[in-house]
Each structure stands twice: as C-alpha cells, then as structure tokens.
Amino acid sequence: MLDEVADRTLRVEVWTRERSPPPGNGRRETVATLRELEATGVLADVSIHTWGRSVPASPPEDGESLVHDRIEAFESWAACNGHSLEPAFRYRERTTLVSEHAEEVVHLPLQCLAVYDRDDLVAVFPCTNEDGTNTAAECVARLDPAIEDD
C-alpha cells in the first residue's frame, strides 16, 4: 500500500470527528506525529478536516459535498486495490422519533487518513483486506522512517 517514499510528494488528509481530541487520545498523537513528519520533509502537507458522526448516504441534490466526494474516492480506491472500508465506514438506516421515514446514512470513523502522492490517492486508513484491518496508527508507522519494522 505505502511503498518507498523516494521520488514521491506525499500529503495526508486527516478526517476526524473532533478538531481537537482530548489529551492522551491516540488521534491527537497521530496528528502530532504527522505534523512532525511534515516539518521534517517526509510529508509535503498535512491537512485536517472535520466531519460528523454520519452523513446521508446520498449526496445533496446540488452535488456539493466534500465529504461525499471523499467517501466516493475512498470507496473507488478500496475497490481498485482489493480493500474494504468496512467496518470503519458503515452504511445503515437511521430513523427518528418524528418521522417514520428511514434514511440511509454512512457512519464515519473517528479518524481516517487519506494518503496522496501529489493528486493520486494511494492509501486510505482504516481499511480492511484479507490480512485484517489496517489502522491510522499503522499508516503513521509506515510513513515514519524513525519507526522500525518488526
């Protein structure tokens, strides 16, 4: 998924439910490490984006939704690379107390990392393949040259 970084211009989009997770939270440590990798030149850019707990499965009628665009790109990447975004991204129906109408929503992960080589999406974490689930922490470990492989 993430091979050698030589001759690459890697950037990471961090998608998180909270702009500033509580102290001691692994999501905060992930962002701090990514910022260090950016400062040392391993990464060209790190951007932070916030999303909610879930979004309607269908994009808005005007078609303008960065979150929906990213979900579509992540799903396309997963399908082309033998991965699944489940269980981190889950489709389910949601009902409310004020309506009998059920709405399909996408339940979003607490944190998602999208790795790009220039404009090409090269990895999404978390994702699942036949070997198991690859986490955001594993993504950071693969990007950080200071972390040795076991």
Structure description:
- It comes from Halorubellus litoreus.
- This is HTH domain-containing protein.
- Pfam families: HTH_63.
- InterPro entries: HTH_63.
- With 150 residues, this protein is of the alpha+beta class.
- It has one domain (10-143).
- Helices cover 25% and strands 34% of the residues.
- The protein has three helices and nine strands, in the order E-H-E-E-H-E-E-E-E-E-E-H.
- It has helices spanning 26-39, 66-80, 136-143; strands at 10-16, 45-50, 54-56, 90-96, 99-107, 111-117, 120-125, 127-129, 132-134.
- A four-stranded mixed beta sheet has the order 2-1-6-7, sandwiched between helices. A three-stranded antiparallel beta sheet has the order 3-5-4, with no helix packed on it. It has a two-stranded antiparallel sheet with strand order 8-9.
- Helix 1 packs parallel to helix 3 (136-143).
- The longest helix has 15 residues, at 66-80.
- The radius of gyration is 16 Å and the shape is globular.
- It starts with 9 loop residues before the first strand and ends in a 7-residue tail after the last helix.
- The model has no long low-confidence stretch (mean pLDDT 88).
Count of DSSP H/I helices: 3
**H/E element order:** EHEEHEEEEEEH
Rg (C-alpha, Å): 16 Å
Largest sheet: 4 strands, mixed
Shape: globular
**What is the strand arrangement across the widest sheet?**
2-1-6-7
> Share of helix among residues?
10-25%
State which percent range the strand residues make up. 25-35%
Structural class: alpha+beta
